[in-house]
């Protein structure tokens, strides 16, 4: 808002009154009438609903195969299951093996060439956070909930993609559409180097006008922005001397105080910027310090009467734009460079996930999805608060594809925990939405992204 005060004119007051009236009428309208769907769209919805039991059975099969990220055979087996299903509906598939390059199973790609409307990229992941020896392995149904590892994060979303395309195929409207599906095998624990691990996804995004990710959904909202994440490692050094001389000219402050100074200044100077967060997750300090970055594990020893020689802090940094990330890093470097007496410090930043920055194209795409939702008799959809979402694979596609959205998957709770579940009706709901959205985006006369 600007500080300019404007009196509402008669015209805008009238407009507001009219808008309020329309909103009131919309609120009174019966829902579930499919009032705004075309005949073809009604047919697509009918097919999704007719296939709903089959979709749930397929999800049960997928969930019953353990695919913890490091269970490479399991991830590949889930990829094979979906691969066969995509071939059954006429898509071509490819397995991008990653075992040699990043020590991960690989990614499933399914595609169909076409030139009608927008080119659409559909993203999912095959892996879960539950390792092969986890206690949580099986799929079960209790009332209207399905329970199992990865049921909502995100094998449910993968099934939404498959059965949305299947409905479009069965309705005879998929031919001619440019569709590419990328299901990664290492979303929960991404292989390194990232450039190798996400190469296939980034290339696919380069061919797409619209990227849609099917991570768990939320009522009344979709994701137009997610923060990016990165990490930093701070090492400070001090004079290893008798503690009786600490603070003196010749001994100085020591590594531990230097580390404390820096962390405190980070907090004081940067902690209230919107969407920017940074967290020192692991801290080790002392005379003898060992730290394993890959395992996030450290050990230290020292004596109370010896000034600490080394301190290491490993933390993360989350941001909503590339610019915010760069600015924060510059400010952090400046703080690091000041130094207490007789100490040294250096900080190193490592990129991980880029930000999916909210922009006009994503907002416009959300508008299209929201209209689909309303036309299906559901609610209008708003943009999710980007501060509440972690990083995800959509972030790699978002900076490249024309427009992107996330949170198109099923509704569930307890993701990553031993009671992860999915609301069963949300599987068909998300599939109907996805099918109609993809259909509208790939029509000859679709709004271009
Ligand atoms: Zn996920």
**Count of folded domains:** 2
Helix content: 25-40%
Per CATH, the class of the largest domain reads Alpha Beta
- In the CATH hierarchy, the third-tier topology of the largest domain is known as Aminopeptidase
Note poorly predicted spans: 1-34
The hetero compounds bound to this protein are: zinc ion
Number of strands: 18
- Strand percentage: 15-25%
Supply the CATH architecture of the largest domain: 3-Layer(aba) Sandwich
Shape descriptor: elongated
Overall mean confidence score, pLDDT: 92
Distance between the termini: 28 Å
CATH homologous superfamily title of the largest domain: Zn peptidases
Question: What composes the largest sheet?
Answer: 6 strands, mixed
- Strand line-up in the sheet with most strands: 1-2-6-3-7-16
Tell me the structural class: alpha+beta
Radius of gyration: 26 Å
The number of helices is 13
Give keywords.
single chain; about 450 residues; alpha+beta; Aminopeptidase; Alpha-Beta Plaits; 2 domains; six-stranded mixed β-sheet; four-stranded antiparallel β-sheet; 13 helices; 18 strands; elongated; disordered N terminus; binds zinc ion
Task: Give me a quick take on this structure.
It is built from 13 helices and 18 strands.
Task: Describe the overall structure.
Strands 1-2-6-3-7-16 form a 6-stranded mixed beta sheet, with helices on both faces. The chain has a 4-stranded antiparallel beta sheet with strand order 4-5-18-17. The two termini are 28 Å apart. It is α+β, with helices and mostly antiparallel strands. The chain is elongated, with a radius of gyration of 26 Å. The chain folds into 2 domains: 274 residues, Zn peptidases (Aminopeptidase), CATH 3.40.630; 126 residues, Alpha-Beta Plaits. The protein has 13 helices and 18 strands. The site of zinc ion (ZN) has 5 residues, from helix 6.
